Amino acid sequence: MTQLLPITAADTAGKKHTGQPDPPATGTTEEITLAVQQLMDAIPNLHEEKINTIINTYNKDGITLQAHMDSTQNPHAITAAQVGAYTIVQTDAKIDEKIIEMGAGDMAKGEYAGSGYGIVAKADLATSAANSADGVKIYTQTKTGTVHALAGNGANGRMLVTALYAAGDTFTVNGTAVSTATGAEAALTADNIGTWVSFTYDGTQLNFTAGQGKAYTDTKLSMKLLWENISPSSTFAEQTLALDLSKYDGVVIALNTYISGNTVADYVMCKKGEKTQITFGGYSGAYVAFHFRYISTSDNGVSFENNVTYIPTGNNTDNNYNIPVKIYGIKGVQ
């Protein structure tokens, strides 16, 4: 804030009502004249004094006002409620709620895979939590070179497998060497990476059991609708449907057994690169008839052969049966 400068003697030099000749000191007229001159001489001095007082007060108050404006210590004592804000306590509570919603509680208990294998399957989460309540404790596994370092507490343990066992490998539990690790070769295999295994520990020896549940990331099966028959009540002759199956492991086909059917009667899964036979049988008058259709899949689509109907007197092509209604691409088929 800009300050005002006081008036100095130099500022008023030559500007006051001074320099009048001294009047004679006799007679009433002279006295009056002298008094008037003295009063006129005093007016500028009085103005200078009053103005400087105002300037000094302004400057003092200005310094105080600027300090007040610059203060970050809430000089008016405004509360959070007055401006519609959360208090510190309320803010901390909200943050805690969000952390809990994000699963921090489960992560702190070691129920999430910490080595890049994904979230443990829900069934395993429930089992591990229940086991922990019953005395089974969560351990972690870290392998450096040929040494598997287990960390945790308790005679009954449960850990997520993050490293394979190889002949000659050794184990430690909380830094203490283990003399024997029975069952490690069967439990710590490639098939069990990302699974939970249980074991017992008596202070010198480990006894492992097999894996108990894959992570979702290892077992997830996905399916997407790729084609739909716009006329499911019509005959379906031999043909190839051009579909891009390069990103899929196979297809699932929804079928109507006969053209008069108005609902999906069956599903068949066809692994890509293999030939699949679909069969439907039923009474046809005085005998049983069987209806066969072959399906083949490749990266370029799905091929349907003609449906063949077998009856005691022979067989014939009859495309009124085994009608595809929908085709789904599937991933995750082993």
Description:
The protein is an alpha+beta fold and 334 residues long. It has three domains: 9-70; 109-217, no CATH class; 221-331, no CATH class. Helices cover 26% and strands 33% of the residues. It is built from seven helices and 18 strands. The strands form three sheets. It has an eight-stranded mixed β-sheet. Strands 10, 13, 14, 15, 16 and 17 form a six-stranded antiparallel β-sheet that branches. Strands 9-18-11-12 form a four-stranded antiparallel β-sheet, with no helix packed on it. A hairpin with a 7-residue loop joins strand 11 (250-258) and strand 12 (266-271). It starts with 8 loop residues before the first helix and ends with a strand. Residues 22-26, 103-133 and 212-219 have low confidence and may be disordered.
Structure summarized in a few sentences:
The chain has 334 residues and is an alpha+beta fold. The chain has helices at 9-12, 27-70, 88-101, 104-108, 122-133, 184-187, 216-219; strands at 137-144, 147-151, 156-160, 170-173, 176-177, 180-182, 196-201, 205-211, 222-228, 239-242, 250-258, 266-271, 275-284, 287-298, 301-304, 308-311, 314-317, 321-331.
Question: What does the secondary structure layout of this molecule look like, with pairings?
Answer:
Layout (H helix, E strand, L loop, with lengths): L8 H4 L14 H44 L17 H14 L2 H5 L13 H12 L3 E8 L2 E5 L4 E5 L9 E4 L2 E2 L2 E3 L1 H4 L8 E6 L3 E7 L4 H4 L2 E7 L10 E4 L7 E9 L7 E6 L3 E10 L2 E12 L2 E4 L3 E4 L2 E4 L3 E11 L3
